[in-house]
Predict the structure of NXF1 factor.
Amino acid sequence: MPKEMNKPWDGRNRGHEDKAYFDHNDRVERPVGRDGRFHVGPIKHHVSFRIHRPSNLISRNLDNDIPMTSNDNMRQMIINQRDRERGGRIRRTVYRGGNNSVPNFKGVQFQGIQGRNFKGDQSNSRMPLPLRESNGYRINIPYGHKYEKDYIINTLLNYIAPKVFIPIMYKKTRTDACFYIDDHKTANALLNCDRKITMSDGFKLRVRVKPEFPNCDIDDEVKERLKQAMAKRYRQDTKALNLSKFHLDSDLCSDYFYALSYPIMMMTVLDIMAEHIPNLEALNLEGNKLQNIERLGILTKKFLKLKILHMGDNKIRDIYQLDAIKDLQLNELKLSGNPVCNKYKSRQNDYVRDVRRRFPRLLFLDGTELPRPIVFDIVDANIPLSQKMFVAVDAKVQEIAKQFLLLYFTVFDSENRQPLLDAYDEHACFSMTISISHNNKLNGYHLENRNLFRINDTTRRQKFLKQGRLPVVSFISEMPRTRHLLSTFTMDISLATQTMMFITITGYVQLDNKEEPIYYFNRTFIIVPKDEGYCIQNEQLHISQLSESQLTKLHQQLNQLENQQVQSEAPALSSVEVTNFVATEPSDEMKQQMTLTLSQQTNMNLEWSLKCLQDTQWNYDNAVSAFILNREQIPSQAFTK
């Protein structure tokens, strides 16, 4: 209990009974009535001298109470706004201190129970609420125009040390100074500097902080500045580009806040890279606050040689975000410092497994060397370039197959197909399939269609399989006359050994009647050595109709080839030596037939057809080969009839 003062307050003599605080007792009993029940009377007014310690959360965010003191003998009191006398009236509060007879209310703050804070002589400033997380913060210094930039920045750095920052876009207005920073913790530290730093002129430095990102406008001037900044970060010897903390580049941060986390900025930088350094092999994107990396998917299309990618210290949260760049053939990847890494307790197992599932060729992850990948688990996604002729073995095999098939199709397109008896083995097999459509015009072939998906009867399957030399050639002879378009042929030799060759021919064929449509065909041959030549042991033929777009494209191709033939002026055909299964010298009648057949096959007149056969010593397949190989050199008069 405080000691009772001898002097009366306000010059009046008042007894103890008028002093309500002398009657106060926190340990009063609850009144009991005659019925034995507790009764609540009117609220008693009281003044408490006990010091209440509020929670840290309240004391941090609410104002401190001001002690009510006099100049000499200080006594501290808190006045409860809800104190009432027994009659329910608000009690008039009296302040008395020392020898003063007049109350001194300077600095007095009346508060309810919510605002109590008893921390002695500490400042009465309110602690600011923490800022929300953002990629950019605007720092405003009211009246900062009076000070030099270096003075303000160094003063702030000294106060928040060991934290550091680089001011971005520092500018002065008529009354203020402002700049931007990129770090959340540093922004909160600067926010707490408000009115706590005394400047050289005696004024307190005011600091205002709020999450804000400046406008990002891209023009030609900005692109030129970006190119200059990127040029100094590129290493020609290693083909590596370092874009780490690109928004803090010394050549940019004085005038721009162009962070790569801003989508339009990222796309602009990637376009500049694709234009000037398409052969980039290493890229560093660390410390750029990247959260959404979907736009990095352009790396898979424009930077095919990229092998090293560093994306540490960003904001990548989930492993599935890497799916946007999983087509990159990376050897080295860095993700440390991203929130996604904190989700994996076992980095060696789960983390490495999930990352390598997307980048199977990866050798280094976060600076750690990984076990070598299993080669057969890696599938190369690159499709080989299409070639008109593919041979898996040497050129000699290609030449043999080429000569054999040229002669085969030459005889096949002639009026007499009986010479093909020498082209088939005694036990040869032949089958044919056709594609079925609603407007199918291949009705002549439909009855012999050996489609195993449609024919379940074993007897019919056996019937449609032609076995033996005579049945095969007889069936071929009954087929309508055809004209194969040799310029559309493709040939693949998938397998070649000493005892057999596996050959696939594709192209277009037209029936002898030019009004008939053109069809697509695919023929597979297995040829084996026989005597001094080769013969067919197995053949499969597939025929299908063309769509309108395919037919239009084919006509354009044929017209282009025809124009090239007419415009070309060159020496006559050269002779080509070749071996085939016809070894005897033809008779005069046979020579005449060969000349006529060659003329029909090549569209050359009889004179040039005869000359071609004579130059090739009446070897028909050599003549056809010579025509194909030297077609562009044949003069236009050779086709005048």
